[in-house]
Amino acid sequence: MSEASRLQQAFAAGKFVVSGEIGPPKGTHIEEMLHHIDALKDKVDALNVTDNQSSVMRISSLGVCQLIKEKNGEPILQMTCRDRNRLALQSDLLSASVLGIKNVLCLTGDYITIGDHKEAKPVFDIDSVQLIQTIRQLEQGRDLAGNELQGAPKFFVGAVVTPEADPIEPQLLKFEKKVKAGADFFQTQAIYDIENFKKFMRYARQFNTKIMAGIVLLVSAGMARYMNQNVPGIFVPQELIDEMASAPKGKALEKGIEIAGRMIRQLKDEKICDGVHIMAIGREGVIPDILSAAGLNGAG
Amino acid sequence: MIVAQRKGIDEIKKMVAPYSKILVAGCGTCVAVCMAGGEREVSILASMLRMAFKLDPGKEIEVGEITMERQCDREFIEPFDKKLREYEAVISTACGIGIQFLAEFLGDRPVFPGVNTKFLGSNEGEGTWFERCRACGDCVLGETGGICPITICAKNLLNGPCGGTNKGKCEVDADKDCAWTLIYRRLEKLGGLDNIRKIFPPKNFHVQTHPGRLVHEAYQKEEKK
After folding, report:
1. Is the CB of residue B157 less than 8 Å away from at least one CB of chain A?
2. What ipTM does this complex have?
């Protein structure tokens, strides 16, 4: 139907691909978000827009992806399986396609009770693997029920993986199903231990798919400790926690930027993976600083 | 079995407050085993109601007690027909099935729920029950090592764990096991991991359109076959 997405083209050109993350606001005041979009859209290859992140109701990913398109940015539509059944998901995929949104990231989605509408009905009609299959089927001109479409969409399809999952075997089983279902690229959960990540990459390299390492900006030693305690699949090594703790008062954010930049530089220079996805939750404004620290001058 | 939990006394009292002749009707099957609505619980609830209404000035109330062997079967209700109709209102402590069945049987007088029906579960030790089946109508236990991903996984995922799984536990409740870690480990032992390497298709929810109705083959009318 149309040419490959800019993100897909960047991978195809062998570029070390960088994406940023935009978290839509809760409410109609979008000025700050638009400011972030403006500041980032030309510095990264794509902007990944979360879908009711952490099960907290916000502006939809589809709506914000459209705003990014209007600014000639490259959006990645995140789709979770938590809030929509197979009709709604397919319908939104067709809508995304006609709006010119070409990248989709498929996720299961956090459970309802983690968020701010704890009494809502969780959907999970299909799962992330089946969502990838659904997209591939729509591309063949058929919906999930086998009905013929009048015009088929074309997407560049992403999925997620947690290289530090414990236990790792069931996670890898699912990763392989996502590859088999047709995932073009993967974005990982945040990684901090590059040696561990290299091990994962040696395994992942046997599959024909692109891997973007998840980089979550550390803003304090406390945050690192908190994530180790509370966030499944995230492991911050003690040396990094100590390094964060060693930052002089008021300089922790700068230290976090330095660490993120250093990690990205190593991932790129040693060709460990195909790109990075930078999550600077609530600090989107510093992503350009992280890129500078990594020696990356933007998508250009 | 069907697992239920008695409603709070304040809620029950509020429902039956307009009546003065009330019958608490228990069920001797599942809810008796899970200590929510059997003969013993009927007796306790009746006493609580008598005491609760005693505090209300000017309120005269009679609370009767019966327990049927099963409230989900007409033949067990019929013998109590006369007794049931001696009261203005009935509180059923059976599961939701029994409550509805009794309400339909009586027809001309109100039946109120004395319990909240929770799930289909098993006894996991003294006073503890755990959900084991969501009655999805399309059983996959043969492929998942006898562990149900539809029930035990909070997100009923069919193709492996979500990113929230942590050290074998569930992101929704760290006291609960991750179904997919259990399934993986069990199949590893059974030599059946190939079962779950294939991609399971989206679940067929058509087979569980509600309300479900089933006529045993032997009882289907000749012309319908």
Report:
1. yes
2. 0.94
